[in-house]
Amino acid sequence: QVALVESGGGLVQPGGSLGLICAASGSIDIFDTLGWFRQAPGKQRDLVAFTSRSSGTRYVDSVKGRFTISRDNTKNTMSLQMNDLKPEDTAVYYCYGDPFVGGRSWGQGTQVTVSS
Questions:
Q1: How far is 46 from 57, CA to CA, in rounded Å?
Q2: For the segment 54-64, what is each residue's pLDDT rounded down to a tens digit?
């Protein structure tokens, strides 16, 4: 199974930007879908965005126009560029991959805190 590792989280002021990277231990060609969930304290884990070879790219309404997801098959990475961050974006962000065959892979999570 290909392991996924997130990086790029941190503390940012409202209106600021952060870029998250999800790096795979092997080829991401095995994944049909790659995406991001996030989980705020005391809340469930919610889908943020995904990019799929079979069904395109989707964003949750609250991040449309602010977040951009992309994958780089040459570097075996996926990224989430987050602009105009808001306090409600504060959460642990998890990347995931759904392969063409087999079960979902998850990263360990990276903390994003938006605060002044």
A1: 16
A2: 999 999 999 99
